[in-house]
């Protein structure tokens, strides 16, 4: 259903406003008018529940390539949960692209070939690279054409990723399979002698809506509100997989590559998750937790220690229920994947006390504070209305620069969801930032919000303040909610660095 028909049918009419910014009001209107037809949302506005699989299929590990490579976006087949279905991929026979692994300081030269039947492009999420290589929503490559992404890697070690970013089609293309990891290594990280090789496991966690023949993407109005979620949790492209491990430390490099679903990660034996890094690389010191939230677009670098477990033990990575997630998130706990202990090994790894030099940027170094209201549900403008999800009551307009920022400036940006009732993982292109403060909702920062970030979760009722040292990479970049349905609905603005 088109939004304008929806507005007409709900009797909201031209130029009307939903006062009070309440998604519940909106959902009530949906229900009253029988808009939620069961395609993913039930009448109480809850997303489809997760269906756990059998944990009997092996965890695939994406192949690794260098920064000189070709990525061909294409319609292909993927074997997921034992069925061969059609999907989109950056290589044939599978949904995820290769993991690109580079050292800091190298020049990447990635030849993108668009063999999709529609426009696409690649955004390098987490990379601090020039605007013309960043995969801006308007910098798209036509079907059948190619583009050479060339950029120098000039940032500390960390786990980044890549995905399509064409205006209005990011969510669908990503959901149908287009994504991949991008790992940067450097000397500081190497000196720590972290678990590596088979002991360093990349985990791309996603939820998909599987049909007999493919991956369905058809969000209802309710799912534009909540974000589109799937009943099947996949890791590295396989549903409910398992992997065999030894009794030692492992380094898990985790990406939440889902469109909308937030995970509250934990181990089923309640073992420690030792958080050593996040979006922007290593933390200053390891931080040990039992559970940790991971929103779409965010990454975690986690050590887990299977020492002391007997052969045959099974430990699940799971997502536990959580509070503060609004009406559509955190209401269900489920298993994600299984670790099966199959080998006894002694391990000489010792956890370093200090990981990396991370200097906190003092709030006093900011030259400007910008406030962004992200709970907007005001629907004004009648037939010109372009989105339910807004930032400062605006939706994305390619012809409008929303914020002008001076090169090299340091600024505080405030994402205010204090009146909102949906979670919004807010992401900035072109920069890494530090999180200064969270008020309302959870009322504090999590351990993975120290150090450097490029995506920060703003839960309902929360206001989150970040500090951003901008670079000299002048040009036009976007910032947006990384709930990809919200993003495609227009919850994205542009800043220009001059
Ligand atoms: Cu991963 Cu503009 O996003
Ligand atoms: Cu990004
Ligand atoms: Cu959002």
Characterize this entry briefly.
The protein folds into 4 domains: 3-41, no CATH class; 57-190, Sandwich (Immunoglobulin-like); 197-343, Cupredoxins -  blue copper proteins (Immunoglobulin-like); 363-497, Cupredoxins -  blue copper proteins (Immunoglobulin-like, Sandwich). 8% of the residues lie in helices and 37% in strands. It has helices spanning 3-10, 23-32, 170-175, 187-190, 221-226, 484-488; strands at 57-58, 64-65, 68-80, 83-89, 99-103, 107-114, 123-125, 146-152, 158-163, 180-185, 200-208, 232-235, 238-239, 241-246, 249-256, 263-267, 273-278, 281-289, 292-294, 299-305, 314-319, 334-343, 368-373, 403-405, 410-416, 424-428, 434-439, 455-458, 463-469, 475-481, 492-497.
CATH topology of the largest domain: Immunoglobulin-like
Mean pLDDT: 91
Compute the gyration radius: what is it?
22 Å
Shape from CA axes? globular
CATH superfamily of the largest domain: Cupredoxins -  blue copper proteins
Q: How many strands in all? A: 31
Strand content: 35-45%
Helix content: under 10%
CATH hierarchy: architecture of the largest domain: Sandwich
The class by helix and strand makeup works out as: mainly beta
Major beta-sheet overview: 7 strands, mixed
Instruction: Tell me the number of helical segments per DSSP (H or I, 4 or more residues long).
Output: 6
CATH level 1 name of the largest domain: Mainly Beta
The molecules bound to the chains, other than polymers, are: CU-O-CU linkage, copper (II) ion
Task: Count up the domains.
Answer: 4
**Ranges with pLDDT <50 over ≥5 residues?**
1-44, 380-386
End-to-end Cα distance, whole Å, is 41 Å
Going across the major beta sheet, what is the strand order?
Answer: 13-12-11-15-20-17-18
């Amino acid at each position: 259903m088109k939004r304008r028909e929806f507005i007409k049918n709900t009797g909201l009419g031209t130029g009307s406003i939903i006062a009070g910014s309440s998604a519940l009001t909106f959902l009530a209107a949906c229900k009253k008018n029988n808009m939620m037809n069961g395609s993913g949302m039930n009448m109480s506005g809850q997303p489809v529940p997760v269906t756990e699989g059998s944990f009997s299929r092996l965890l695939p590990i994406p192949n690794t390539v260098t920064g000189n490579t070709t990525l061909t976006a294409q319609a292909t087949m993927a074997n997921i949960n034992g069925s061969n279905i059609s999907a989109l991929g950056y290589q044939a026979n599978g949904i995820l692209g290769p993991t690109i692994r580079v050292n800091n300081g190298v020049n990447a030269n990635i030849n993108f070939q668009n063999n999709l039947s529609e426009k696409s492009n690649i955004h390098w999420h987490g990379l601090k690279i020039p605007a013309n290589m960043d995969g801006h929503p308007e910098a798209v490559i036509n079907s059948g054409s190619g583009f050479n992404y060339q950029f120098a890697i000039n940032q500390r070690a960390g786990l980044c990723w890549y995905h399509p970013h064409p205006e209005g089609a990011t969510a669908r293309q990503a959901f149908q399979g287009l994504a991949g990891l991008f790992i940067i290594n450097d000397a500081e990280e190497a000196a720590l002698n972290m678990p590596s090789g088979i002991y360093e496991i990349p985990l791309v966690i996603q939820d998909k809506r599987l049909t007999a023949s493919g991956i369905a993407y058809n969000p209802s109005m309710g799912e534009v509100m909540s974000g589109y979620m799937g009943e099947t949790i996949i890791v590295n492209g396989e549903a409910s997989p398992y992997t065999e491990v030894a009794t030692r430390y492992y380094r898990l490099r985790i990406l939440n590559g889902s469109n909308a679903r937030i995970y509250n990660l934990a181990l089923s034996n309640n073992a420690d998750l030792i958080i050593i890094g996040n979006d922007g690389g290593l933390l200053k010191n390891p931080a040990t937790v039992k559970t940790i939230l991971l929103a779409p677009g965010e990454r975690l670098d986690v050590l887990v220690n299977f020492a002391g477990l007997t052969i045959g033990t099974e430990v699940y990575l799971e997502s536990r229920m959580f509070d503060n997630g609004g009406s559509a998130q955190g209401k269900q706990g489920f298993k994600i994947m299984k670790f099966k202990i199959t080998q006894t090994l002694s391990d000489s790894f010792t956890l370093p006390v200090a990981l990396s030099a991370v200097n906190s940027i003092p709030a006093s170094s900011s030259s400007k504070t910008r406030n962004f209201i992200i709970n907007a549900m005001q629907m004004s403008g009648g037939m010109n209305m372009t989105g339910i999800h807004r930032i400062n009551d605006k939706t994305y307009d390619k012809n409008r620069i929303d914020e002008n920022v001076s090169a090299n400036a340091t600024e505080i940006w405030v994402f205010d969801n204090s009146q909102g009732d949906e979670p919004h993982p807010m992401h900035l292109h072109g920069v890494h930032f530090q999180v200064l403060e969270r008020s309302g909702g959870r009322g504090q920062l999590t351990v993975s919000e120290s150090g450097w970030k490029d995506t920060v979760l703003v839960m309902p009722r929360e206001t989150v303040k970040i500090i951003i040292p901008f670079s000299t990479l002048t040009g036009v970049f976007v910032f947006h909610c990384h709930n990809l349905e919200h993003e495609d609905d227009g919850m994205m603005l542009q800043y220009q660095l001059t």
